[in-house]
Amino acid sequence: MDCLFCKIVAGEIPSKKVYEDEAVYAFYDIQPQAPVHVLIVPRCHIASAQEITPENADAVSAIFAAIPKIAEALGLANGYRVVTNCGEDGCQSVKHLHFHLIGGKKLSETMA
Fold first, then answer.
1. Per the structure, how many domains does the chain have?
2. In this structure, what CATH number is given to the domain that contains residue 30?
3. Structural domain of residue 13, as residue ranges?
4. Is 65 domain-assigned?
5. For the chain, which has fewer Cβ within 10 Å, the N-terminal or C-terminal residue?
6. What are the catalytic residues?
7. In what order do the strands lie in the sheet with 99-103?
8. Contacts of 92 (CB under 8 A, 6+ apart)
9. Where are the alpha helices (DSSP H) in the chain?
C-alpha cells in the first residue's frame, strides 16, 4: 500500500511523534494551523470517516480515548478543536483517516 500515514506509523517516514499506543499514533502536522496542531491516526488503514464500519469502529474509539491524554500532555487545558476531513469536497488530503487536534490559542468560531 502506498499510504503516507501508513508509512509514518510503520516508521518508514520520519515524524515528530507526540503519542502512541497499540491502536493510535499521533504526530505534529508539518503545516500547522495553530500553535499546537497534531494529527491522530489509527494504526490500521481506514481511508476516511466514510469507511468506518462496526468492524473497525474500535480504532476510532481508541483515538477518542487518546485525545484527552494528548491534549493534557500538550497543555491544552483551555480547550482545543478536533476535526476530520472526508473526501474531496471536505479537503481530505491524505486518504487515511486522521483527526486534527488544534489548539494553543483562542480559535475562530467559524469553521468554513
1. 1
2. 3.30.428.10
3. 4-78+85-91
4. yes
5. C
6. 98
7. 17-20, 24-28, 36-42, 99-103, 80-83
8. 48, 85, 86
9. 4-9, 57-73
